[in-house]
Amino acid sequence: MSGPARVIWDDDLTSYDFGPGHPLAPVRVELTMALARELGVLDKVELTGCGPATDDELSLVHKRDYVEAVKRVSADGRGDLSVGLGTSDNPAFAGVHEASALIAGATLAAARSVFEGASLHAVNVAGGLHHAMAGMASGFCVYNDPAVAIAWLLSQGVSKIAYVDVDVHHGDGVQALFYDDPRVLTISLHESPRTLFPGTGWPGETGAEGTAVNVALPAGCGDSGWLRAFHAVVPPLLRDFQPEFLVTQHGCDSHALDPLANLMLSIDGQRTAYAELHKLAHETAGGRWIATGGGGYELVQVVPRVWTHLIAEASGHPIDPATPTGEAWRELVRERTREVPPLTMTDGRHPEFLDISSGYDPADPIDRAIMATRNAVFPYHGLDPLP
Fold first, then answer.
1. What is the pTM of this model?
2. Would residue 235 count as lying in a domain?
């Protein structure tokens, strides 16, 4: 199924560091790459470096004066609240521009690789900073690397791009940046804004011609409900839209152990979603797939395993969930975090779900969320919202 896959990596990607105690700890990507290397996953992909995004590339989506403000903060580490730097979510630090531009450059490198045909799939696990706005840092995100990559593809003449965001938080920055652009279909599955930051992502936010799609799921939703919602919304819209490229954001903070959110997915449910997105890339976008990381704050038990599964899926060589994590990696975990590492690549779950075509239950909050989305956007696409 899979064509050549490329993983973009530079050790300096771990320099995106808001300091001790901040949830977005760079050790999560360090441990991901170490686990992927330990299990031989990186042997099955082309591993390439990257450079930082230029000011012109960042300005495809960000205001020039915002980029200049970030550079000023970067020079001395002093915050600038007018652009959202210096808050508890986005602390200021010296070098913030360089670190953020490198992440954007890595996702751009992934996009270029697929656009130029050097690879069919490309992954940047350090990316997925989907909350950054045109002129404001937000939600741990300074530069919006998925949006920069999408805008770059559009600048190269690509006419249709689909963006699917499975982070537990609404992909508000990417949605906002392309809200009025019918060339970009944004689909976000997230915990309801009633209970989680950023407070947006309602089904009624439909954008240009129904190209903003939001599935707002109730707190407590687990594998079966989440997968039911995914299949009720994502495949029919991608099949209708027929994008030239599929860009995906794989925040794994929907996991039951994540300390910042309230969904209840397992490693196995998340891995299942990644496999479905891979299939949909081939079915609807000629296989052209650009994948990023995103949120994820259970730094040992969740992020490294899930994103190693993502890289393996993109390589065309998925990992058997029963695979042991490996003693060398476990020792690294103990050394870097003093935590007890997981022993295998699974939570021991076997996700199953009933398709919405089996019937709609108006008493079920997940079904109500599904139908709110389908009723809001399916008519724009000539699709029947009823199961």
1. 0.98
2. yes
Would you call 70 exposed, middle or buried from its count of C-beta atoms within 10 A (0-12, 13-18, 19+)?
buried
The Cα–Cα gap between 202 and 369 comes to: 10
Q: Which residues pair with 191 in a beta bridge?
A: 217
**Residues labelled as active-site residues:** 131
Q: How far apart are alpha carbons 242 and 158 in whole angstroms?
A: 12
Q: What is the pLDDT of residue 1?
A: 39
CB neighbourhood size of 262 (10 A): 17
Please give the average per-residue pLDDT across 122-135, as a whole number.
98
Q: Is the pLDDT of residue 136 over 60?
A: yes
Residue 197's φ and ψ, nearest 5 degrees, are -55, 145
How many domains does the chain divide into?
A: 1
β-pair type (161-165, 121-124): unpaired
Residue 387 lies in a domain: no
Residue 327 within a domain: yes
Q: What share of the chain is helix, strand, coil (3-state, %, to 5)?
A: 40, 15, 45
Tell me which residue range forms the domain holding 140.
Answer: 5-381
The verdict on residue 386 lying in a domain is no
CA distances from 70 to 107, 144, 181, 361 (A): 19, 13, 27, 49
DSSP secondary structure letters along 209-242: GG-EEEEEEPTT-BHHHHHHHHHHHHHHHHHHH-
Give the domain CATH number at 90.
Answer: 3.40.800.20
Instruction: State residue 4's pLDDT score.
Output: 82
